[in-house]
């Protein structure tokens, strides 16, 4: 997952004022369906929140929500407050209400704020309060926060990180309403967020109050509260802040040098920066990673010791580039269903292959253009991505449009058969984006590219506060190309045909080689994906068509022995490496605690490493297309090999 936005809901501008941010915004764009619309002629109530964390060791964020009837209006007899079930950018119903506890409601608006009000839950995430005509309702509840991902919450003695969609309830029917959030940090912790500070906010020491013009903005703005480190830099006169929470082998000065290069290349491609400031929120972790895009910020998690080695550091920069590019692609260039949002149900779209896949394509394009990745490394990376896709039988079972639509039930819930039945709209989407870019370049002799498509979508849809459909995307690409792309979209976007890597790369003077040494003796191939977990050697998944699949090995099998001798993952690979295709071996396994034996005839793996290399004696046309794509003459690009 991984992230973006200037909302479908608003067009906003930010400016630093006295070290803080102020925001002005146009009203939330009407939804295509009448979801959560304000009651007719009823003004929005005044809504404010206070989030406290006095006992971090409990993992409980303490939330107070105050709802005051607007001037010249009365509180309705009953009021529904609701917790979102998902957060934009992470397409799974996460049921955030399951972390709510200690809910209370009471009367406010006068000196006596202790009178309790009756309430009941009407469904999994809605609380209905009987107001008794009180001018103000005070709701208090706690949110259990002990899961560090970019789409959930964590509070402990080191930090607090939360997504507002997973923390703050909204008043049913008033997603357009403005609100304020006061944060009371623990001890001397500092506060980082993309939200601007409110004027006339709290004066309590350490506390700060922030303002949002509507809930799309509020839910788009996570908070990080800790004793973090921060660096600042400017790109094109606009301030950027890079906040780092946690220890690690990162180099803040190197980040200060490298991240602005990504920002600059993005601005160069998209003709400017559509914000007045931007905040990167990075948290380090022993094993976790990920990112989520936001309107003028992004939340990032990286392994704390992943910054020293060049390859892993480059992977981190790719994550930064991915989330940053989302501020156009998804946050401003919005697929049909992604904004305004229905926070109570799935928001289906067939365009996640563009929103996420094309962004995944550009994450490394931007690094290459910024000089943070060599052309050789870039072509090696593409070869690895092609091999990964070709190793996935599900590529022939699901199109990128189908993968996009089924994200809500597939992507975040993989099982042992996913490799055979599905593909990632990130991974295959990136490769479809690559092929589309090359197709446009080829047809226009290098004059136009996918860059032009993204700029046109920004001009024709984002700047006009419109969402685009699959038909709009294809039509825009065809207009840029100057010819029909219907066959391309039918086969590779809506269809499940094999992607034409070799023939496409050939036009650019490149050959896709499968690196199997023809002189080496063929090696035996088993095919199952295995994992060593302590003493257990377990089958994780079994791709369709492999010897393991065809001869009855299944996920969950625990392999005990090969030909009667106990094996581990290392010794099994060593023993199989001594075999040849066609050899038969006997596996002893536990399946559901029953001891079984399976004769397995080994096969041959015909899928080697993929390497992209220049053709011999490239033509002038091939050289020209190569340079138009990679921005450097072919002989220069390959001279370092």
Q: Kindly state the number of beta strands.
A: 31
Mind describing the biggest β-sheet?
A: 6 strands, mixed
Number of helices: 16
Q: What's the CATH superfamily of the largest domain, by name?
A: Neutral Protease Domain 2
Which CATH-level-2 architecture of the largest domain? Answer: Orthogonal Bundle
Q: Overall 3D geometry?
A: globular
What distance lies between the first and last C-alpha atoms, to the nearest angstrom? 35 Å
Q: Which oligomerization state do the chains in this entry correspond to?
A: single chain
Cα-based radius of gyration, to the nearest Å: 27 Å
Indicate the low-confidence ranges by residue numbers: 2-38, 636-641
Task: Classify the helix fraction into a percent range.
Answer: 25-40%
Q: CATH topology of the largest domain, what is it called? A: Neutral Protease, domain 2
Q: Structural class of the secondary elements?
A: alpha+beta
Summarize the structure.
The protein has 641 residues and is an alpha+beta fold. It contains 16 helices and 31 strands. Strands 6-9-4-3-13-15 form a 6-stranded mixed sheet. It has a 5-stranded mixed sheet with strand order 17-18-19-21-20, covered by helices on one side.
Verbal overview:
It is a single chain. It contains 16 helices and 31 strands. Helix 2 packs across helix 3, helix 3 crosses helix 4 and helix 4 crosses helix 8. The protein starts with 11 loop residues before the first strand and ends with a helix. The chain has three domains: 216 residues, Immunoglobulin-like (Sandwich); 275 residues, Neutral Protease Domain 2 (Neutral Protease, domain 2, Orthogonal Bundle), CATH 1.10.390; 81 residues, Pdz3 Domain, CATH 2.30.42. Helix content is 26%, strand content 27%. It has 641 residues and is of the alpha+beta class. It has a six-stranded mixed beta sheet with strand order 6-9-4-3-13-15. The protein has a five-stranded mixed beta sheet with strand order 17-18-19-21-20, with helices on one face. The N terminus and C terminus are likely disordered. The longest helix has 19 residues. It is globular. Strand 7 and strand 8 form a beta hairpin.
